[in-house]
Known about the structure:
The protein is of the alpha+beta class. The chain has helices spanning 6-57, 60-63, 65-76, 159-207, 225-273, 280-311, 323-340, 360-376, 423-428, 435-445; strands spanning 84-89, 94-97, 122-127, 134-143, 149-157, 319-322, 344-349, 355-358, 383-391, 394-401, 449-454, 460-467.
Amino acid sequence: MNTRSIRFRLTVWYAALLAGLLLVFGATSYFGLAGYLEWSLRDSLENQAQQIAVSHLADVGLTGEDYVIGEIEEHYAPEINSRFVRVTRGDGSILYASGIPEDESFDPTGLGAATLPSDEPFTRKVFLPDGKGGLLLYTMPFTARDGSCYTIEIGAPFHAIESVLRGLLFTLAVGMPIIILLSIAGGYFVMRRALEPVNALTHSAERITSSNLGERLPAVNTGDELERLSIALNNMVERLDAAFTHIRRFSADASHELRTPLTVLRGELEELAEQPNLQEESRERIGSALEETDRLSRIVESLLVISRLDAGEARMEKKQFDFAELTAATVEQLRLLAEDKGVSLVSDVEGGGVEVEGDPARLKQIVVNLLDNAIKYTPPDGKVEAKVRRNGSFAILEVKDGGIGIPAEALPHVFERFYRVDKARSRSVGGTGLGLAIVKSICTAHGGDVTVESREGRGSMFQVKLPIVAQE
C-alpha cells in the first residue's frame, strides 16, 4: 500500500478524526453518567433522610423511640434494600443502626462514629476498612419538636454505580474499535470509489506519448472538480497535439525544402572539383565542403525519415517475415566493416524462426544503426554481439558491445535527436546524433520499444522489443 497516496492519507485523517471524536464522546458519556448517577443517589438519600426526620423523628417525644425504630424497619427495610441507616442522639448514643444487608454488599460495623451535627447537611464518601466496600453517606442534623437533637445518616453502596460505569466502559472499549474499523473500511471504500476517475485519468495520461497525442483522456461527467480537471487536461493534450503537429510539419517541410538546394550545391561542388586547372589547395577545400554537404544531406534525410515516422506518414510495406534471418543477414553484410576496425562481430540467432510483421527495410535499418554504432565505439580487438530470441509475445534483439560505455547521466537522453555523449568523438567518427532517434521512431511505429543498459568502460547493450506474429 502506498502510504503517500491521497487515498491512504485521507483514510488516516478520517480514522484519526473519528477516533478522537469517539474518545471525546466516550469520555463525556462516562463522566456525565457517573456524575448523574451520583447526583441521583445523593438526591434519593436526601429524600429518605428528610422523610425519616419529618415523618418519624419530629414527634419522637410523643411517639417514643421504639415507634421510630419500628417505622424505619417497616418503611425502609435497610437490610433488604441495601441501605445504611443510623440515627444518633445528641449525646452520641445510637438510637438506631441498620445491620449487614442481605446481599452483603458492605459491612457497616466498620463504619466510624457519627459526625457531630453541624448547621448544614452534607454528603461524603466513606471507604470501609479491609476492602469491605464503600458508601455514599448523607448526614443531616435534625431537632425534634421537644428540642432533642439527632444526627440522621443514610448511606448506599457504590457498587451499583460502579457496575453501571463498568458496563458502559466495557461497551465503549469493545464498540469503539469496531465502529472505527467499520468506519475506516467504509471510508476507504467510499474514497476508492471517489478517486476511481483520478486513477482512470492517470492510466490514460500515462499511455499518451508524443506518438499518440490524438488520444484523449476519459470524460468524467461528475459536475465537480474532477470533470474540470479532465476537461483541462484534454485541452492541454489538444494544444500539445497541435504544437507537435506543427513541429513535425515544420521539420518535414524544412527537410524536404533543403534537399533540392543541397543536391544543387553538391553538383556544383563536384563540377568545380573536376576543373583541370584547379589549384590543389582549392581542390582540398572543395573536397572538405563536399564532405560537409554529404553530412548535411544525411542529416536532412534522417530528419525527414523521423518526421514522417512520428507523423505516421512514412511509407512502409509491412509483411510477415523472419526477424532472426534478417538480423543474421545484416550481420554478415556488416562483418567486413567490423573486420576493417579489428572488431569481432558475432551473431546468436535463435532457431525456429522469430516471425514479426513490419517493413523489412525499416527494421533492417534498426539492426544496421545499432551494429554500426557498436562497431564505431568498440576499440580494436573488441567484440560486438547480436542476439535474437523470443520472449513471450515479443521478439528481442540485443546488440552488445565492449566499447567505452555511456555515462549514467546520459542514458535518459541517448534517443533524443542530435544528442551526443561525446560531441568531439561523434563528429570524428561521422555521427549525426540521429541514428538512435531513428531506431526509436521505427520501433514506436512498429508497436515496439528500445532500451539501453550501459556502464562507462564496460560497454553497452541495446535491446529492441517487437511484437511477434501470433501462431495459429
